Amino acid sequence: MQTVRELLRRAGTQxxxxxxxxxxxxxxxxxxxxxxxxxLYAHPELTPPPGPVGDFLRLLEAxxxxxPVAYLTGRKEFHSLNFRVSRxxxxxxxxxxxxxxxxxxxxxxxSRAAILDLGTGSGAIAIALAAARQNCTLTATDLSLExxxxxxxxxxxxxxxxxxxxxSDWFGNLHNSRFDAxxxxxxxxxxxxxxxxxxxxxxxxxxxxxxxxxxTTCLRLVITGGRRHLKPGGFMLVxxxxxxGGFVREQFRLNGYRNxxxxxxxxxxxxxxxxxxx
Length: 278
Hints:
Blueprint: H1 4-14, H2 21-33, H3 37-42, H4 50-64, H5 69-73, E1 75-78, E2 81-84, H6 94-106, E3 114-118, H7 124-132, E4 137-142, H8 145-157, E5 163-167, E6 179-184, H9 198-203, H10 217-229, E7 230-239, H11 245-254, E8 258-264, E9 270-276
Parallel strand pairs: 3-4, 3-6, 4-5, 6-7
Antiparallel strand pairs: 1-2, 7-9, 8-9
Helix pairs in contact: 1-2, 2-4, 6-7
């Protein structure tokens, strides 16, 4: 039988291909034991029972096959909140927290702004904003009914009540609604030349990843349609691929937005762009 320390060491070696092998191993072992990661640090010499060890080894095998950790544990932390995820939603990524931070920097703490989160998925963006700006009114949309069910569950689990969820294909079901802010992390992957690991493309929902022609179809639709649904002076923030900043800025410019500004992610790649409606 192996101790917690030995199991983690073995798993770290097996997951050496991952960007975060140690963290992956800890999250999977903690899930198998039904414990927090802090339990592992406090009990490195513990020898877990055979049942949880078997569960851990099965999770480890699935992770080695490319399944995202969040799909295996069913949970993901985002902006200091805990979210349930499923194969109907994208796994919330650290880069997207920058989008939330940028929005919060533009929205005063006392604001009563109407905010739209397009393509909400697990609800991470909308719920993080709603929790931080409780006087604001959030609308979160998605085409996937399964994703909306997950998002509603996450809102309830995080005690957030100032969000309404609506099924919509982008702006299709929003009619004449207008907002002070629109945020969107649209599908922007160009499948034929994606830099994402192939396993990530296999296991995450293609609907939430595939950006169509050159990865830019959804970006164009969101930016073009957004101008009609922004109040004068309102702003839009969109996440995009590392090499799509120029395209996004041009789309904003062609659609008459102003104060166009692109910011980088933790790796220094252009990752999101904001603009305002005159």
